[in-house]
Amino acid sequence: MPYHLSPAKLSTYQACPAQYQFRYEFKLPGFGFGGASLGRSLHGALTRIYRDWDYSASPKPDLSWLDACWQSESQAHGSLTEAQVSEGYDILARYFQNWIAPLDRFLKPLMIEGKVQGHWQVDDLEFVLSGRVDRLDWFDVDSLALVEYKTSRKFVEPAIADLTLQVGLYALAINQQWERELKSATLIFLRPGESITVEVTNEQLAIVQQTITDLAIRLRAESRWEPTPGEHCDRCKYQQYCPAQTDQPLPIPDERSGASVLQLSLRL
Ligand code: SF4
After folding, report:
1. What's domain 3-30+108-215's architecture?
2. Tens digit of pLDDT for each residue in 47-79?
3. What is the sign, positive or negative, of the torsion defined by CA atoms of 37, 43, 47, 48?
4. What is the pTM of this model?
5. What are the CA-CA distances from residue 250 to residues 21, 29, 243 (Å)?
6. Is 195 helix (H, G, I), strand (E, B) or coil?
7. Which of 98, 227, 230, 239 is least crowded, fewest Cβ atoms below 10 Å from its Cβ?
8. Mutate to test the pocket of ligand 1, among 22, 235, 242 (most ligand atoms within 8 A of CB)
9. 181-229: per-residue pLDDT in tens?
């Protein structure tokens, strides 16, 4: 049975192996997402804008197309407040001014809101590398460019280590799936209307491969993974289990730690 890895999992592992183990190996409850309906609707509207446009009709859409897509999407998500509908329109209008209006021609992406998947083997342990991508564009005639939308309120310069891992993992999977090279990744922060683009390098690919190898070694050899405290602890939902946070961490329920040992023993 292969071991599944995603960019989010690898980022968690990079930040703190103990947090990774609590979340993905022991599957302890704690993480949850809420209040993201505007973000989901913005993603949905951008999918409609690129997926449903008639690319043979005219070189590029105008604001009325964006308006129509936002109306359809915001009505489909009846849970948005009036203020969120208005905020969402303003965010998309800013997106239009920054990333559509300057184009000579609106080009159809290779993939919109889809899954990418690849494989990586470390000795006898097979990893499945998978993640969802917001958009995969053509970089040139035979290479690709990844676009991801972020809905955080502020532009947050991603930590280089985190970006390296995420982009590297996407590149490994995309290069395999499409048999074409991923050349760049762009993160678009929709609310502030800013973006960052990074080139995909061989160094990123090498770092991801090394990180997966480290993970494979740990899966084989260690029953408890060390905590690496840092700023990320503020957002960690497992502090009560963490020996770096408290002198008396809660014990891991037997059935959880047992499940992990069973999983680890499957291939080893
Ligand atoms: S509290 Fe910090 S050190 Fe402990 S598991 Fe969470 S992220 Fe890791």
Report:
1. Alpha-Beta Complex (3.90)
2. 999 999 999 988 999 999 999 999 999 988 777
3. positive
4. 0.78
5. 15, 13, 9
6. strand
7. 230
8. 242
9. 999 999 999 999 999 999 999 988 898 889 888 888 888 777 778 899 9
